[in-house]
C-alpha cells in the first residue's frame, strides 16, 4: 500500500506517521529530539522513515517544523527551539531516503489537516487558530495555504491588538498572544489573585496559597467548578480572542474559524465569550454572514497528517 509519511519535529520529540490519501494515520513512530545537533535530527527523521518503510510503500515525505520555512519549502531559515539556521532540511533528508521531501511550518501543516480532514473540511477558506502557550495557526484562502512572499506568513499571534500594550515574548508590545493565549490566561489569573486574594480564594487554594503557583489547568478546573473569578479570566481571554479574530476576518473574510490547542480543552468557557466578542467586533456584521467558530478534531495527529498531505500535493 502506498502512503505519504508526515513528520512533526518538535523541541522534545520527533513523531512520524504513515498517512493514507484520505488522511488516516496508519502507523506511528515517536523518538526523542536531539535538539542541539542538526545532523542528529536528520538521522532520527531518517530512522523514523526507515521504520515506516518496512510496512508501506512511501511516495513522499512531508516535514512540519517549528520555525520559519523558506518559500521553496526546502529549508528552515530559523527555528527557536532547535539548532537550525538556514538548514537545507529537505535536501538532506531526501539524500538519505531517496524520496521527495517537502518542509512546512508545523502550524501551517496542522492547519492544513484541519482544513482538509478535520473541523473545517468542506469549506474553501478557513483560519485555524492554535491557542497554547502562545497563539499560532494557519490560513487557507480558496483552497490554498497562505504562505507569503518569503514563506513566513500567518504569524498571527503577533498582530498588534493593543497599542503600546503588554510586552510579548517576541519583544514587541500589544501582540494578540499577550492577551489571548495560555500564558495570558495564567497571567490574568495571577494578577487578579494578587489584587484580590479573598475573591481568588479557590484559585489560591489550588495553587498552594501563592499567585505564582497558579497554572492554566487550575484556572480551567476552578472555572469548571463555577468559580466566578476563574470564569471571569476566561471571559477576558475570550474577549480578546474574538477581537483578534474579527481583525483577521476584516482582512481575509474566512468561511470559518477553528480553535485548536490546549487552552481549547476548556470548551464553552472559552468558546462562548470568543463567539460573542467576534460577533460584536466584526466589521459590517449586519450585512455579512456570521462566521462560525469550531474546535479542532484531529488533536496531536494534525501536524503529521497535514505535512503528509502537503507533500502529496
From TrEMBL:
On the tree of life, the source organism's domain of life is Bacteria
Please report which protein family the annotation says this sequence is part of: Belongs to the ROK (NagC/XylR) family.
**Recorded GO CC terms:** cytoplasm
- Specify whether Ribonucleoprotein is a keyword of the entry: no
* One GO process term, biological-process aspect: glycolytic process
SUPFAM superfamilies registered for this protein in UniProt: Actin-like ATPase domain
Residues annotated as coiled-coil are: none
Q: Which UniProt keywords apply?
A: ATP-binding, Kinase, Nucleotide-binding, Transferase
InterPro entries from the xrefs? ATPase_NBD, ROK, ROK_cs, ROK_glcA
Which Enzyme Commission number(s) are listed? 2.7.1.2
Q: Which Pfam family would be a valid example here? A: ROK
The molecule here is called Glucokinase
Instruction: Tell me a Gene Ontology molecular-function term this record carries.
Output: glucokinase activity
Amino acid at each position: 500500500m502506498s502512503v505519504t509519511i508526515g513528520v512533526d519535529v518538535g523541541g522534545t520529540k520527533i513523531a512520524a506517521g504513515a498517512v493514507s490519501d484520505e488522511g488516516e494515520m496508519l502507523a506511528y513512530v515517536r523518538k526523542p529530539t536531539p535538539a542541539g545537533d542538526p545532523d542528529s535530527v536528520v538521522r532520527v527523521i531518517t530512522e523514523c522513515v526507515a521504520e515506516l518503510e518496512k510496512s508501506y510503500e512511501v511516495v513522499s515525505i512531508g516535514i512540519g517544523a517549528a520555525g520559519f520555512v523558506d518559500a521553496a519549502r526546502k529549508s528552515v531559515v530559523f527555528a527557536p527551539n532547535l539548532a537550525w539556521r538556514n538548514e537545507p532540511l529537505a535536501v538532506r533528508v531526501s539524500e538519505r531516503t531517496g524520496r521527495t521531501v517537502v518542509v512546512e511550518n508545523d502550524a501551517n501543516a496542522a492547519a492544513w489537516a484541519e482544513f482538509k480532514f478535520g473541523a473545517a473540511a468542506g469549506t474553501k477558506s478557513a483560519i485555524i487558530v492554535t491557542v497554547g502557550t502562545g497563539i499560532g495557526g494557519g490560513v487557507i484562502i480558496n483552497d490554498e495555504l497562505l504562505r507569503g512572499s518569503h514563506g513566513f506568513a500567518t504569524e498571527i499571534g503577533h498582530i498588534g491588538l493593543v497599542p503600546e500594550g503588554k510586552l510579548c515574548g517576541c519583544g514587541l508590545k500589544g501582540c494578540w498572544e499577550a492577551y489571548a493565549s495560555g500564558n495570558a490566561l495564567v497571567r490574568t489569573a495571577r494578577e487578579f489573585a494578587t489584587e484580590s486574594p479573598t475573591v481568588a480564594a479557590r484559585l489560591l487554594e489550588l495553587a498552594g496559597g501563592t499567585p505564582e503557583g497558579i497554572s492554566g489547568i487550575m484556572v480551567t478546573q476552578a472555572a469548571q467548578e463555577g468559580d466566578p473569578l476563574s470564569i471571569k479570566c476566561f471571559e477576558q481571554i475570550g474577549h480578546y480572542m474574538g477581537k483578534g479574530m474579527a481583525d483577521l476576518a476584516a482582512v481575509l473574510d474566512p468561511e470559518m474559524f477553528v480553535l485548536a490547542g490546549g487552552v481549547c480543552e476548556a470548551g464553552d468557557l472559552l468558546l462562548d465569550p470568543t463567539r460573542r466578542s467576534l460577533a460584536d467586533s466584526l466589521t459590517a456584521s449586519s450585512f455579512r454572514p456570521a462566521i462560525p467558530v469550531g474546535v479542532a478534531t484531529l488533536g496531536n495527529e494534525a501536524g503529521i497528517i497535514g505535512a503528509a498531505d502537503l507533500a502529496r500535493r
